[in-house]
Design goal:
Aspartate-semialdehyde dehydrogenase; 184 residues; 3 helices; 17% helix; eight-stranded antiparallel beta sheet; protein yfey like fold; globular; alpha+beta
Length: 184
């Protein structure tokens, strides 16, 4: 009977792991980027976001992510929900600097950032050798750059397999990672 109870307990614990968030052992092995940045900065990477000393991978809890980003960027400028996304209903939290975080079922699933008004977004970094406003002609030299031929959304590109973006009027106008509510 004890073995049966132990077996059920092991299976129950295994079922709790979504498999989406890297384990501490994976992070310590160095295969997964775990970063910290200065307390007054937010960094965006292809696997999630970093706010000061806190790193959040996709699948991190919404409350924790929003609390950390609010400490650095201030209160969100908007929150909304779109029921009709291809990826399923999505909740968005937007901050000054044209940064939007995407959530589903209470978990971080993506982010996107556009061209910010003058003086906004200066404390947001992008962990790539591409920046908003970068000339389209310079994209070919970016690590992992691949144009997405035939995109119905305009001039779209990928950066390796974790980030992407758009070009408008000859310059990078948006970068994104993770799940998005783009209608193709």
């Amino acid at each position: 009977m004890r073995r049966l109870a132990l077996g059920v307990m092991v299976l129950a614990l295994a079922a709790c792991d979504s498999g989406q968030v890297p384990s501490p052992a994976d992070r310590m092995a160095g295969d997964i980027p775990v970063d910290t940045v200065d307390e007054g900065l937010v960094a965006l990477h292809g696997e999630g976001v970093v706010a000061g000393a806190e790193s959040f991978f996709f699948a991190a809890g919404r409350n924790e992510v929003e609390t950390a980003l609010t400490k650095v960027l201030g209160e969100p400028v908007s929150r909304n929900e779109i029921e009709e996304c291809g990826a399923g209903p999505m909740q968005m939290t937007s901050y000054a600097g044209e940064l939007t975080l995407n959530f589903q079922s209470g978990s971080l699933v993506g982010w996107n950032i556009g061209s910010a008004p003058e003086g906004e977004g200066e404390n947001i970094q992008i962990d790539a050798d591409v920046t908003i406003g970068m000339a389209a002609d310079d994209l070919a030299a970016a690590t992992g750059y691949t144009p997405i031929e035939g995109s119905t959304l305009g001039e779209e590109f990928a950066l390796s397999n974790t980030m992407g973006g758009f070009v408008d009027s000859g310059a990078v106008s948006m970068l994104y990672a993770g799940a998005q509510c783009f209608f193709r």
